[in-house]
Write a sequence for this structure.
């Protein structure tokens, strides 16, 4: 296939309100986000001929969404699952399908509604904390291994042990995110946070404090993808897809593999940056999957913003903050903004690339990096987005 | 090598199935059992069904040395299960065995704040019920 750089564009963005309370089902949220995205693009439902779906932890939506939305005679439908990397992947597969002329205008949606009355955020992502264990699958709960927080905490601790990374470094990321969130009306946590607040927040699973962890969120985000040619005639400034790639390093859990400190971003970068014809020095804004502070740190290393092991020093001194050299997670990210899996970095990248970031808009937004990541650093999808149809 | 239970066996006790019975039989007699590939000799995590090195499914069981290092660890402060409530914070350890596979367990016989990435460990066993003992790890002697 020919180089797809600049062939696809994101032309619509729809976001529901982001909440910490149950408002409606994931399917209801998905429908709302899709309606908003289609309106945003200046399109009608009948213009959509493809639907790509990503359910969150509750798996509350699937291909039945097409019927619920009354969408007829679609040319492309799938319920995709690359875990947290799916948002980036959906844009990639939509772009490929459009360039292959299998479809012309594809909606990609993520929706989840994990928070219900009486349920804690931790319980929503507990994963196997209840139920009788059988065979070796049961060993984890016998030892007290529960929840996603633990898996990432173990990865972060490995980085600390190998490279001397500290909670001060993680805290710098949390504080930076909060500074950005303060300028984002859609962010859920906007109050001032100091490094002392970070250190004073309760432990979840060491080395993670509460403020190292994302905000479990109910909500939905949808984007509309079409060809760059068609994008020119639509309502919003097009956001062009200049580069895309994936990386899935595998997780052998055996000697010789440092899977906790080496993510798929490195492999995804090769493909995506190569397609876009950019280097790390060209990136104006980084929108990174930040389910935990550590995820930001290790992802920055794997894209080559700094050497492996030097992420701690890199994030210190405000580099990621408003006014810093590498504006990162400019909407507050998943830590202080909203946790819509890969749609968090993608939605903020679209806003920035369009120049619609308001108080938090970055002046130079020609090249925006989107990093979506899933599993326990297992799956990675990268996009290079730009208001320009090429980087020339 | 088996230590008496330090608390009532209220923690979730795994039920052996056909695949895992040799692992639990080994643990009961004080042996940490791993899978070994008959095709390429790789040592594999006991839950492995297909060799991750050569894709063979011709696997056997072999006793591990019980020695390894602490690859990573976390200290759990969240209360997920009533059996662990009065243990908080308790440690969770990823142990890299000398044979290669990593095994998730707990480290015993050491204060949590003395744990360090890379420290040498050796297996010990904790009795969970009359039939079930599980491998844990302690600082190497």
């Amino acid at each position: 296939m020919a180089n797809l750089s600049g062939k696809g564009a994101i032309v619509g963005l729809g976001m529901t309100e982001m909440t910490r309370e149950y408002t409606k089902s994931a399917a209801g949220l998905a429908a709302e986000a899709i309606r908003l995205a289609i309106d945003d693009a200046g399109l009608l439902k009948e213009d959509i001929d493809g639907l790509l779906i990503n359910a969150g932890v509750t798996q509350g939506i699937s291909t039945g969404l097409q019927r619920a939305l009354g969408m007829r005679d679609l040319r492309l439908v799938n319920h995709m699952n690359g875990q947290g990397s799916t948002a980036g992947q959906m844009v990639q597969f939509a772009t490929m399908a459009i360039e292959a002329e299998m479809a012309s205008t594809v909606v990609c949606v993520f929706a989840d509604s994990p928070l219900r009355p009486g349920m804690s955020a931790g319980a929503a992502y507990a994963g196997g904390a209840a139920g009788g264990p059988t065979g070796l699958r049961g060993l984890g709960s016998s030892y007290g291994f529960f929840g996603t927080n633990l898996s990432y905490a173990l990865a972060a601790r490995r980085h600390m042990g190998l490279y001397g990374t500290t909670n001060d470094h993680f805290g710098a990321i949390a504080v930076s995110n909060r500074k950005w969130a303060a300028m984002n009306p859609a962010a859920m946590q906007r109050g001032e946070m100091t490094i002392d607040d970070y250190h004073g927040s309760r432990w979840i699973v060491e080395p993670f404090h509460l403020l190292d962890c994302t905000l479990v969120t109910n909500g939905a985000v949808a984007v509309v993808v079409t060809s760059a040619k068609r994008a020119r005639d639509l309502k919003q400034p097009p956001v062009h897809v200049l580069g895309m790639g994936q990386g899935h390093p595998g997780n052998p859990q055996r000697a010789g593999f440092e899977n906790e400190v080496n993510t798929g971003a490195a492999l995804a970068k090769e493909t995506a940056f190569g397609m876009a014809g950019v280097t790390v020095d060209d990136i104006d804004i980084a929108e990174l999957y930040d389910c935990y502070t550590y995820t930001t740190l290790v992802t920055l290393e794997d894209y080559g913003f700094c050497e492996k092991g030097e992420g701690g020093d890199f994030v210190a001194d405000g580099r990621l903050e408003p006014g810093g050299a590498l504006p990162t997670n400019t909407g507050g990210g998943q830590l202080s903004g909203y946790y819509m899996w890969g749609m968090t970095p993608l939605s903020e990248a679209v806003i920035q690339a369009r120049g619609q970031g308001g108080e938090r808009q970055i002046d130079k937004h020609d090249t925006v990096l989107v990093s979506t990541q899933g599993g326990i650093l297992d799956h990675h999808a990268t996009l290079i987005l730009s208001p320009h149809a090429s980087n020339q | 090598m088996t230590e008496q239970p330090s608390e009532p066996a209220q923690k979730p006790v795994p039920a052996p199935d056909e695949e895992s019975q040799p692992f639990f039989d080994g643990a009961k007699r004080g042996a940490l059992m791993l899978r070994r590939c008959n095709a390429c000799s790789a040592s594999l995590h006991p839950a492995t069904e297909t060799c991750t090195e050569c894709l063979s499914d011709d696997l056997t069981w072999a006793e591990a040395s019980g020695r390894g290092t602490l690859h990573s660890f976390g200290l759990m402060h969240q209360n997920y299960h009533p059996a662990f409530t009065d243990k908080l914070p308790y440690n969770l350890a990823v142990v890299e065995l000398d044979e290669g596979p990593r095994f998730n367990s707990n480290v015993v016989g050491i204060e949590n704040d003395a744990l360090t990435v890379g420290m040498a460990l050796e297996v010990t066993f904790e009795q969970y019920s009359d039939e079930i003992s599980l491998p844990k790890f302690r600082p190497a002697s």
